[in-house]
Amino acid sequence: MPRYVMLLNWTDQGIRAVKDTVKRSAAARQTFEKAGARITDFYWTTGSHDLVLIAEAPSDEVISRVGLQLGMIGNVRSTTMRAYDEKEMEKIVKSL
Hints:
Layout: E1 3-10, H1 12-16, H2 21-34, E2 38-44, E3 51-56, H3 60-73, E4 76-83, H4 86-94
Antiparallel strand pairs: 1-3, 1-4, 2-3
C-alpha cells in the first residue's frame, strides 16, 4: 500500500486545545481507518512542524480525502507527501 508523510501544524484552535492532542491523535487514527487508510507512526516534533505522521492509504485520493477531513475539523493544517521505499524507487529508476 502506498505510504505518505504528513507534516502537520496546529492552527490557533488546535494550540488552544493542545491538552487534547493525544485524544485527537486517537480520533485521527479512527478517521484514517474508516477511510481504508492507516497511520503507522505519529510523532510530536520540534522545529517547523508540530506533528509528523506516517500513513498508508490505497490511493492518493483516499489520503487527500482524509487530509481534507482533518483540516475541516480545524485543529491542524497539513502538507502531504508520497513516500517511496527502496524497492519502489529501484523500480522507478530502472524504468529510466
